[in-house]
TrEMBL record:
Domain of life: Bacteria
InterPro entries according to UniProt: YefM-like_sf
Protein name in UniProt: Antitoxin
Organism: Fluviibacter phosphoraccumulans
Similarity comment: Belongs to the phD/YefM antitoxin family.
Amino acid sequence: MYNATDNVVEGAKMNVISANELKTRGISAIEQALAEEPEAIVSVRGKDRFVVLELAQYQHLRECELEVALAEARADVAAGRVVRESPEEHLARLDAMA
């Protein structure tokens, strides 16, 4: 939960940039916020709307998501929760579901 008074998200400090500050200061507002913390929140009309982070951090998070998806797929294969079929059989099965 976010506490606007303390700029705290679930006990972790996170910088908050207002949309107005972003409009007036531009990218320098983001650069300053990211120099202090790896992420920053952009608030619009007092409500948190966006999270900004450096590209390297974003790429790391995406890699983590893909690793989790791969692990889940491997677990499904190992547990037999897969269907092995030809493309034609697959399309026929999809048509039967519709």
